[in-house]
From TrEMBL:
Source species of the chain: Nonomuraea ferruginea
Coiled-coil residue windows: none
Protein name as it appears in the record: LUD domain-containing protein
Family matches, as PANTHER family: LACTATE UTILIZATION PROTEIN C (PTHR43682:SF1)
Superkingdom assignment: Bacteria
């Protein structure tokens, strides 16, 4: 008998005949947040992302200004007013690599962590479309922002491919030298549509 089995055997012997105990699970599922959009914008900025908080009516004009003259990946299902009139890039890996960026929406956003979640739904693109181009412009509607991770998980379908984005792609080496753009876009720009 190995050490593991011996320890487990002793535990089983010690609890044999003990009554079942119900353990209450009153976990906090939503932190108290008064201004979800404000907190989300603050946390996204903490990750070195560029953030614009705009009324919904101003979003199309802002996108047009941000993507002017760029070849952008425009995912299927993106609202037409969010394309900004950009020249659409193709979908092959070489075309994605040559694109200037991608414009997407999102499935949900988390205020507490400043995280955006994509689930490849309409207007969100595939993982390749959102991870290969060097620039990602993501539009987050205020109604898509939840306070915490448990609320976000409750809104998501775990059978869909999920991409969780917390700022531009970055990593650090053993000496803590930060390098951006290793595993995805170097630049994340977010429009919070209120």
């Amino acid at each position: 008998m190995g050490a593991r089995e011996e320890i487990l055997g002793r535990i089983r012997q010690a609890v044999r005949g003990a009554p079942e105990v119900e353990i209450p699970r009153g976990y906090r599922t939503a932190p108290p947040v008064d201004d979800l959009a404000g907190l989300f914008a603050e946390r996204v900025r903490d990750y070195r992302a560029i953030v614009h908080v705009l009324p919904a009516a101003e979003v199309p004009a802002a996108i047009t200004e941000l993507v002017r003259g760029r070849r952008m990946v425009i995912p299927d299902g993106l609202p037409p007013e969010w394309s900004g009139g950009a020249e659409p890039a193709g979908g092959s890996l070489a075309e994605l690599d040559a694109a200037d960026g991608v414009v997407t929406g999102c499935a949900v956003a988390i205020a507490e962590t400043g995280t955006i979640v994509l689930d490849t739904g309409p207007g969100q693109g595939t993982r390749a479309q959102t991870l290969v181009p060097d620039y990602h412009l993501c539009v987050v509607r205020a109604g898509q922002i939840v306070a915490g991770v448990p609320e976000a998980v409750a809104r998501l379908d775990p059978s869909r491919p999920l991409t969780w984005i917390s700022g531009p792609s970055a990593t650090s080496d053993i000496e803590l030298n930060r390098v951006e753009g290793v595993h995805g876009p170097r630049t994340l720009e977010v429009i919070v549509s209120t």
